[in-house]
From TrEMBL:
GO terms for biological process: protein transport. The keyword Nucleotide-binding does not apply. It is found in: Membrane. This is Sec-independent protein translocase protein TatB. GO terms for cellular component: membrane. The lineage of its organism: Bacteria, Bacillati, Actinomycetota, Actinomycetes, Micrococcales. It comes from Agromyces cerinus subsp. cerinus. Residues 111-132 are annotated as: Disordered. Its main location: membrane. Coiled coil: none annotated.
């Protein structure tokens, strides 16, 4: 089944419900649960029908699995963006070329790093009194 619910677990939940609710109130709550599930299904179908009406014939052409946010892995997206890998290329193709950014030797980070490396063991770190 879905979500890790098996028949055994559902049976245990049912037995616990019988003990907690009692046999007198159980049919009433089961009917309420059935109405809730039915109304949720009707709401989902209504939303789908409304979306189909608003989008027109393009609704059936949409690949919904492609838009599923659970499939996105940021590491994979970045790796594919940085490499020139063709997923449909043959295996005999040459190794992919990785795009590398050029390093700016005068960047603020590298300047701070050089200053820190130049400090002696007894010297305190530089302090800027005007920094926020």
């Amino acid at each position: 089944m879905f979500g890790g619910l098996t028949f055994d677990k559902l049976l245990i939940v049912g037995v616990i419900a019988v003990f907690l609710l009692g046999p007198e109130r159980l049919p009433h709550y089961a009917a309420q649960l059935g109405r809730l599930v039915r109304s949720l299904r009707d709401m989902a179908n209504g939303a789908k029908d409304r979306m189909r009406d608003e989008m027109g014939p393009d609704f059936d052409d949409v690949d919904w699995k492609k838009l599923d946010p659970r499939q996105y892995d940021p590491r994979r997206i970045i790796r594919e963006a940085l490499t020139d890998i063709d997923p449909f290329a043959e295996e005999d193709a040459p190794a992919p070329v990785v795009a590398r950014a050029s390093v700016n030797e005068n960047s603020a980070y590298l300047q701070r790093k050089r200053k820190r490396e130049g400090l002696g063991a007894d010297e305190p770190a530089p302090f800027d009194s005007e920094a926020t």
